[in-house]
């Protein structure tokens, strides 16, 4: 018997000020997904629409101009108008990713670090340098017993490069929250020096607590990160044109992981 | 008439009163122009309304009409005491356009007639490029001025044809010296450093929020720009070939989309043609909101692809008056001004009509799509309002609450402006060689670091990294390059590979620029030739085909009513023609900003003439593009091109404080040959790294390649090809001669490379070493230099970290 494999369906939620949706679409498509970029108004009008998708992605940008605080308005909108279905989506262990502004949205909505309570317990604050930083950094992939619980970050080398571009990327949480994140192995990426040593600015681009660049929930299906994996799909996108193979970059592996997880 | 509209007495005024009227109402019209307006209304046997008079002033403004460059000019050239007179009836048409027309490239889709120039990208798409200036607003309100500058040029790209999708921004600035004493700053002006910081923040906040990477630029500091900073903003976009042209039909509806209209930016177009002084009105500066513009971008491209409109243009200078006026030029139009959505109540009809409030686009919509297009915008919370209809009577009719407040002929508005005749003069200046420069190894090493640290050479990373230059994920040659992600050197050009927009393409778009007002202080012809070649060299360095580039010109000059200033402008346009023809590359769009002057205490400060040349080209195979950082120990370093004794206007002359010397000249034939062969070498995969020699000369460029690549070099300076045996070593190392490339070639490929270059002037001058030093020796000059690349990089990086 030959089973025909349907392509997974990805929804990229966009709104006023969303920027990184085209390249995110390209990233998923290259990995074999069907992708729809859908405006939030359309999702609110048809509240069950979101549940028809397999992967939820919130891209980078400046949603609503980052007025009030980065990602805050979109987070409130999603939570107040679509909260129930978002929570359902999250708890059903379908993959969710929030990149840059999307990470800010996930944290401010309370899906990260943990979706159960659905309350904001951490934040992303202004960079220590007090300015926007667009540069490549090294990320240490945190592993326990040789791998990570984050379905998005499986089988990556110990250190990968990715670009960051943000003004508010400093991960901040109180001691208890931080302790829980660490103890539950929810840190996925940490900023590092190229050899794994402690990074100094600018390799630590924002002053994040514990050099946190990306975290996942306890189940590992929800992933939020400040760096932009969708900008490192191809080797050509790396400043020195180094890739994971002849054609692709390590960013692609992250999206491939989510697609493969659904197979 | 209601109290909202005033009748302005003009038909009975004498000359003096006409001039007075123009001045008090910021019309910026000359006496001759005022008399023409008077004549028109005398024929109509009535006085104009304020709306009508303002409409004429906006439409005839230098900003919108380019009266100087399209007017009559009598140009006198004085060379060796001999006078030679040339008459132009339209300088632009007889120089820059002429070259483009004569070249008649089949890959030019739309040149000089729309909001941007458009050339072929592939079978299905074109690429559009436009660069604008926003100088006066940025002088008064740096943050808002530059933000709306970038916002405005993005709308030019949205308003070309039926709308292009922006892929990249560029920005070039000229500022006063950042270490200027506060007491030296003219009254009413901001300090240059404050202007610089404000301008950078404005571009950052608008560009980043729009999701368009700012990928290429330049910054030039000179005391001449203290009172008049220059802010050039550019945008490049991609557009389907079947969407490159617009056409308005009679009966189409006028739709205004995006931002609301307020009192900001009143008289922006006319105020750009007056000298600034301490009384200049800040309310002429617009207020920007990038998220409103982003929403317009997102939705209008959808409407474009559904063919819901027939024409679009942006509201820029002159506001609705020029946007609607341009669209309706061939048909006629009726607009009901009370329908225009306002930010707040209380605007007079003329204010609504000429306000330059931001983020507004005007569309011509066939009546059958009326509901569908409104729905599309409404779905994403974008305000869209029908305000009128295109007619067939070739008249501009404006109504306010059913009352006619303006009724004029389109022909008078668009073709009625009288052509002035201006005189222009240029007299050749004699140059003399600078005094002999003698230095020992120690001083020379320090000089190298001083040049790297000079404000016009040093790293711009403080600026570049505040811009998201990688959003959209298509910037494959970035403004900073290096072997690792830690060290970097300055890129010659940027390359955008539109992989997220054009699926499976190997093609890419290169953007580069050239600007150097320092040379223009001696001769604007040589400056122009140099900056055009620099823009080309920069593009060629990363892999562009020098025969398939297109150019944009942006002139920022002083007051053209002064014959010497206009003379230097004529020289520059002549050089544009000569270069364009010689290299067979067309100009596709351009803009001029004149009257960059500032009056204080009866004294007038005029800017050093600045020509920005931006180059754009399509690269066939993105995989063949090359970066500037050294790649491999043991490979050879070549210097291609000849080094002349050309130090006038150089960075070295500035730090050594001498004014003599020769400005770089250009051997067009040799330059053409060199660029062609370098391009061939890149296509044949023979080039590991390539960098051009410009500000700071050879030694600066080779140092940058070394520290960006984290590798050393060992150079024998006596092997550098020079045109004059009496040149001293500093003259050789710091000369800014054109047409020179530093190329890294692997040992295996060196024979093939030399074979390609056999008809060019070049020499193999050294090799790449693993030790982290720039080693340079000259037995002729008894000089040996050894400097750690870390120290060179530090010198380069420390200056501009604010």
Task: Describe the overall structure.
The complex is a heterodimer of chains A (263) and B (802). With 263 residues, chain A is of the alpha/beta class. Chain A contains 6 helices and 11 strands. Chain A has a 9-stranded mixed sheet with strand order 2-1-3-4-11-10-9-6-7, with helices on both faces. In chain A, strands 5-8 form a two-stranded antiparallel sheet. In chain A, α3 packs across α4 (101-109). Chain B has 802 residues and is α+β, with helices and mostly antiparallel strands. Chain B is built from 27 helices and 33 strands. In chain B, the strands form 7 sheets. In chain B, strands 10-12-9-13-11-14-15 form a 7-stranded mixed sheet, with helices on both faces. Chain B has a 7-stranded mixed sheet with strand order 28-30-27-31-29-32-33, sandwiched between helices. Chain B has a 6-stranded mixed sheet with strand order 3-4-5-8-6-7. Chain B starts with 14 loop residues before the first helix and ends with a helix. Chains A and B meet through α1, β6 and β7 of A and α10, α12 and β18 of B.
Describe, in short, the structure shown.
By secondary structure, chain A is α/β, with parallel strands linked by helices.
Physical arrangement of strands within the biggest beta sheet of chain B: 10-12-9-13-11-14-15
Overall, the morphology of chain A is globular
User: How many individual β-strands of chain A?
Assistant: 11
Domains of chain A (count): 1
Biggest sheet features of chain B: 7 strands, mixed
Proportion in helices of chain A: 25-40%
Largest sheet of chain A: 9 strands, mixed
CATH structural fold name of chain A:
Rossmann fold
Shape of chain B: globular
CATH class of chain A: Alpha Beta
Q: What are the secondary-structure elements of chain A, in order, as H or E? A: EHEHEHEHEEEEHEEEH
Mean pLDDT of chain B: 94
Number of helices of chain B: 27
């Amino acid at each position: 018997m030959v089973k025909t494999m349907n392509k997974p369906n990805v929804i990229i939620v966009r709104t006023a000020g969303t920027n990184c949706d085209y390249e995110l679409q390209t990233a998923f498509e290259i990995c074999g997904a069907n992708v729809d970029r859908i405006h939030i108004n359309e999702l609110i009008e048809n509240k069950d629409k979101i549940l028809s998708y397999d992967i939820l992605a919130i891209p980078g940008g400046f949603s609503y101009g980052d007025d009030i605080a980065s990602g805050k308005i979109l987070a409130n909108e999603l939570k107040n108008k679509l909260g129930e279905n978002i929570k359902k989506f999250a708890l059903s262990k379908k993959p969710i990713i929030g990149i840059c502004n999307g990470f800010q949205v996930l944290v401010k909505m309370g899906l990260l670090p943990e979706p159960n309570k659905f309350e904001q317990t951490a934040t992303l604050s202004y960079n220590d340098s007090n300015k926007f930083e667009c540069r490549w950094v090294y990320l240490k992939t945190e592993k326990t017993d040789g791998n990570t619980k984050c379905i998005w970050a499986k089988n990556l080398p110990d250190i990968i490069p990715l670009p960051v571009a943000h003004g508010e990327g400093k991960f901040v949480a109180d001691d208890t929250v931080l302790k829980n994140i660490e103890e539950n192995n929810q840190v996925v990426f940490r900023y590092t020096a190229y050899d794994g040593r402690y990074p100094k600015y600018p390799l630590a681009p924002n002053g994040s607590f514990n050099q946190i660049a990306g975290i996942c929930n306890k189940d590992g299906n929800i992933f939020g990160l400040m760096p932009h994996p969708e900008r490192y799909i191809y080797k050509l996108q790396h400043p020195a044109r180094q890739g994971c193979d002849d054609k692709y970059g390590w960013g692609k592996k992250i999206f491939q992981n989510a697609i493969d997880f659904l197979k | 008439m209601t109290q909202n509209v005033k009748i302005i007495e003009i038909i009975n005024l004498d000359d003096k009163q006409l001039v007075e009227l123009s001045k008090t109402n910021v019309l910026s019209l000359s006496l001759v122009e005022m008399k023409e307006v008077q004549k028109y209304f005398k024929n109509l046997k009535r006085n104009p309304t304020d709306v009508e008079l303002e409409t004429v002033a906006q439409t005839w403004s230098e900003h919108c009409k380019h009266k100087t460059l399209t007017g009559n000019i009598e140009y006198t050239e004085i060379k060796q005491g001999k006078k030679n007179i040339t008459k132009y009836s339209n300088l632009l048409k007889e120089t820059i356009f002429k070259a483009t027309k004569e070249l008649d490239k089949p890959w030019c889709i739309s040149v000089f007639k729309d909001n941007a120039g458009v050339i072929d990208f592939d079978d299905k798409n074109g690429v559009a490029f436009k660069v604008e200036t926003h100088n006066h607003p940025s002088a008064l309100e740096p943050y808002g001025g530059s933000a709306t500058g970038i916002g405005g040029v993005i709308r030019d790209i949205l308003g070309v044809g039926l709308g292009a999708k922006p892929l990249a921004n560029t920005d070039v600035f000229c500022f006063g010296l950042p270490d200027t004493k506060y007491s030296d700053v003219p009254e009413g002006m901001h300090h240059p450093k404050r202007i610089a910081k404000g301008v950078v923040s404005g571009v950052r906040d608008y560009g980043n929020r729009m999701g368009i990477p700012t990928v290429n630029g330049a910054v030039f500091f000179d005391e001449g720009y203290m009172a008049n900073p220059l802010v050039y903003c550019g945008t490049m976009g991609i557009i389907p070939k079947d969407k490159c042209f617009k056409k308005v039909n009679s009966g189409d509806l006028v739709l205004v989309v995006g931002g609301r209209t307020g009192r900001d930016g009143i008289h922006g177009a006319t105020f750009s043609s007056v000298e600034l002084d301490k009384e200049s009105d800040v309310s002429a500066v617009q207020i920007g909101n990038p998220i409103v513009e982003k929403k317009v971008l997102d939705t209008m491209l959808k409407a474009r692809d559904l063919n819901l409109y027939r024409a679009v243009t942006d509201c820029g200078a002159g506001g609705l008056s020029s946007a609607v006026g341009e669209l309706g030029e061939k048909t006629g139009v009726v607009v009901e001004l009370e329908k225009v959505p306002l930010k707040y109540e209380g605007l007079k009809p003329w204010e609504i009509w000429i306000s330059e409030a931001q983020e507004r686009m005007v569309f011509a919509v066939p009546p059958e799509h009326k509901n569908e297009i409104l729905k599309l915008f409404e779905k994403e919370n974008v305000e869209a309002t029908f305000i009128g209809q295109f007619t067939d009577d070739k008249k501009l009719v404006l109504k306010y609450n059913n009352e006619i407040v303006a009724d004029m002929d389109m022909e008078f508005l668009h073709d009625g402006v009288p052509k002035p005749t201006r005189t222009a003069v240029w007299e050749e200046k004699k140059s003399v060689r600078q005094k002999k420069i003698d230095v020992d190894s120690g001083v020379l090493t320090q000089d190298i670091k001083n040049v790297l640290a000079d404000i016009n050479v040093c790293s711009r990373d403080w600026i570049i990294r505040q811009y998201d230059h990688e959003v959209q994920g298509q910037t494959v040659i970035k403004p900073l390059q290096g072997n690792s992600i830690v060290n970097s050197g300055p890129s010659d050009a940027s390359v955008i590979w539109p992989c997220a927009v054009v699926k499976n393409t190997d093609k890419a778009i290169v953007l580069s620029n050239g600007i150097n007002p320092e040379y223009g202080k001696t001769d604007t012809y040589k400056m122009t030739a140099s900056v055009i070649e620099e823009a080309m060299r920069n593009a060629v360095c990363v892999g562009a085909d020098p025969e398939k580039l297109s150019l944009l010109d942006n002139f920022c000059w002083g007051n053209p009513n002064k014959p010497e200033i206009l003379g230097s402008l004529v020289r520059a346009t002549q050089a544009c023609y000569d270069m364009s023809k010689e290299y067979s590359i067309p100009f596709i769009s351009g803009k001029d900003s004149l009257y960059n002057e500032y009056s204080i205490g009866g004294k007038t400060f005029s800017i050093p003439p600045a020509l920005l040349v931006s180059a754009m080209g399509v690269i066939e195979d993105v995989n063949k593009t090359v970066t500037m950082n050294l790649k491999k120990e043991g490979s050879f370093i070549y210097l291609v091109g000849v080094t002349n004794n050309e130090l006038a206007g150089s960075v070295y002359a500035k730090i050594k404080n001498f004014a003599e010397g020769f400005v770089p000249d250009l051997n067009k034939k040799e330059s053409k040959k060199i660029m062609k062969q370098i391009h061939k070498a890149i296509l044949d995969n023979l080039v590991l790294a390539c960098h051009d020699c410009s500000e700071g000369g050879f030694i600066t460029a080779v140092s940058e390649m070394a520290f960006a690549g984290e590798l050393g070099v060992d150079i024998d300076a006596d092997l550098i090809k020079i045109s004059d045996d009496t040149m001293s070593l500093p003259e050789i190392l710091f000369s800014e001669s054109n047409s020179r490339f530093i190329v890294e070639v692997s040992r295996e490929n060196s024979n093939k490379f030399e074979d390609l270059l056999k008809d060019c002037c070049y020499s193999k001058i050294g090799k790449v070493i693993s030790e982290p030093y720039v080693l340079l020796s000259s037995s002729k000059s008894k000089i040996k230099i050894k400097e750690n690349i870390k120290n060179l990089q530090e010198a380069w990086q420390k200056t501009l970290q604010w």
